[in-house]
Amino acid sequence: MKYIAWFVIIGSMIIMQSHSIPFWEKVTSSTWNGWLSSIMVESVALLFWYQGYKILAPLATSVVVGTIIFQISAPNIDLIMAISENKKIDNQMQTVVSVLDNIKGKAYPITIQKTLKTLEALSEKSNKKEVKSTTEIQVLIIIVEGIMIFLLLFAQIKMVVLLAKKESVTSVTDTSVTTTRYEHTTTSINDLASEVLRECYEFGEVNKLHSERAIRLKLDLNPPDFERLKKVIKDGVGMSENKMLEIREKIKNYKD
After folding, report:
1. Are 42 and 109 members of one domain?
2. Do 36 and 70 sit in the same domain of this protein?
3. pLDDT digits (tens, 9 = 90+) for 91-141
4. Domain count for the chain
């Protein structure tokens, strides 16, 4: 699932960058700045979603969406306006043709000539604005591309949030396991310290040593060793496990 999530995130990012980069190149008037700005804006938006910023994340995402929708819509909107203007020119030409038909044989040649020039000018203007698509198709293209971008963005955000939740769960689990191990280790050290201290006292009874000082001197222990053992029993710290095993070894191998 993790690999699928990364595939969706990277794939959708590449597709959206193909629309976003041209916009930022125009804004910054630089290819490198355009690429950097586009990638950084989307990366920051994804980072905000990953970190769970409920206000900044939607704001950053709205910037990404705005640039992409503008880049997708602008060429099509220009084309729609050109189509609309062509329709107006066609209507004007039809009016001029109608007028020309009405004045034939009734008007002076100069009037007919002016009307023909008007018709010719409108025809040239129409040729300059020649388009092959219809308004309905361009609107449909904008709608389809917009829906595609929103679906990609939704999937991208969903995968980022999913990865964030998965990492959070993993972190909590690791912390729990570490805590459990620490508690187990602490308990083991406490038990070991208790056993070593008990063995020291048993050693003293066997050898008729009636004080900790006498036991310590007999086993050649350091002055604070008994206090350290007691601290380990109480707090779980104060002496290393190796040191306690060393004391146990001295008791086991003691020869009078």
Report:
1. yes
2. yes
3. 666 665 566 566 555 544 555 555 556 655 655 555 444 444 455 676 777
4. 2
Place of tokens 């000082």: 213
Nearest residue to 35 via CA among 58, 18, 59: 18
Task: For the full predicted model, state whether its pTM sits above 0.85.
Answer: no
Angle in degrees, 0-180, between the axes of helices 225-235 and 212-219, rounded to the nearest 10: 110
Residue 35 CA neighbour count, 13 Å, CB half:
3
| Separation of alpha carbons 102 and 112, rounded Å | 10
Are 166 and 55 within one domain? yes
**CA 217 to each of CA 94, 104, 199, 203, 223: distance values in angstroms, whole numbers, following the listed order:** 123, 137, 15, 12, 9
Axis-axis angle for helices 135-206, 56-103 (nearest 10): 170
Other Cβ atoms less than 10 A from the Cβ of 54: the count is 8
Q: Which residue ranges in the chain fall short of pLDDT 70?
A: 1, 75-136, 138, 167-187, 255-256
Q: How far apart are CA 200 and CA 227, in angstroms?
A: 13
52, 110 contact by CB (below 8 A): no
The identity of residue 63, as a single letter, is V
Inter-residue contact 244 to 196 (CB < 8 Å): yes
Instruction: Quickly list DSSP for 210-223.
Output: -SHHHHHHHHT--T
Same domain, 129 and 195: no
Co-location of 193 and 98 in the same domain: no
Q: Are residues 11 and 130 in the same domain?
A: yes
Q: Kindly list the distances between the CA atom of residue 94 and the CA atoms of 87, 99, 119, 133, in Å, as whole numbers in the listed order.
A: 11, 9, 9, 21
Domain identity same for 163 and 180: no
